[in-house]
């Protein structure tokens, strides 16, 4: 792990973060929603972006891609982190999109490419997803990617306990939108 294969979709190029991404990551991570719903440091500084590119992204237990359009516009980041849990290796996915590019389907396209790569090339059996309660956009993307909702649990993040929604996608699962509780998706009944 650590080094990642470059992935391409119809509209996107996904590759390992490098120094050319630092400024775009720094700017995107000033967004209040990214700060609220991810585990980035707050406030987020240039040093944090450099640390992400040079230390966190190449972590041998992770796969991390920056997402850019084919013309080079920075879209966001998607990553998977694997950690041992007992005798099992658990892989989780996380993602975020620059505020100005939300609603265009880029993040869903990137997540689909990463999941395809995870299940075929990397031979990962299952991917877990979790997000803070209220992060309805992440939940909607996970549901549309085929993740099955597994529940709500308390988790300690940033030195406090918060409720998070959880879901899982197995390599053998259909990659079709799944029904989730309406309150998780921010929709009415």
From TrEMBL:
PROSITE patterns: GNAT (PS51186). The keyword Transferase applies. InterPro entries: Acyl_CoA_acyltransferase (IPR016181), GNAT_dom (IPR000182), N-acetyltransferase (IPR051531). Signal peptide: none annotated. The keyword Ion transport does not apply. GO terms for molecular function: acyltransferase activity, transferring groups other than amino-acyl groups. Pfam families: Acetyltransf_3. Keywords: Acyltransferase, Transferase. Its EC number is 2.3.1.-. Residues 12-175 form the N-acetyltransferase domain. It comes from the Bacteria. This is Ribosomal N-acetyltransferase YdaF. It comes from Gordonia insulae.
């Amino acid at each position: 792990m650590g080094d990642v294969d470059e992935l391409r979709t119809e509209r996107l190029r996904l590759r390992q973060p490098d120094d050319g991404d630092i400024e775009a990551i720094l700017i995107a991570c000033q967004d209040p929603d990214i700060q609220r719903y991810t585990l980035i440091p707050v406030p987020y500084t240039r040093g944090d972006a450099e640390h992400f590119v040079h230390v966190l992204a190449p972590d041998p237990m992770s796969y991390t891609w920056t997402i850019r359009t084919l013309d080079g516009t920075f879209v966001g980041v998607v990553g998977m982190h694997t950690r041992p849990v007992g005798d099992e290796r658990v892989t989780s996915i996380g993602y975020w999109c620059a505020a100005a590019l939300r609603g265009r389907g880029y993040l869903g396209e990137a997540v689909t490419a990463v999941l395809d790569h995870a299940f075929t090339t990397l031979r990962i059996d299952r991917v877990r997803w979790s997000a803070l309660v209220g992060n309805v956009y992440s939940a909607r993307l996970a549901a549309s990617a085929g993740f099955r909702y597994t529940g709500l649990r308390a988790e300690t993040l940033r030195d406090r306990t918060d409720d998070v929604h959880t879901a899982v996608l197995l390599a053998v699962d259909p990659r079709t939108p799944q029904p989730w509780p309406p309150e998780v998706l921010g929709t009415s009944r």
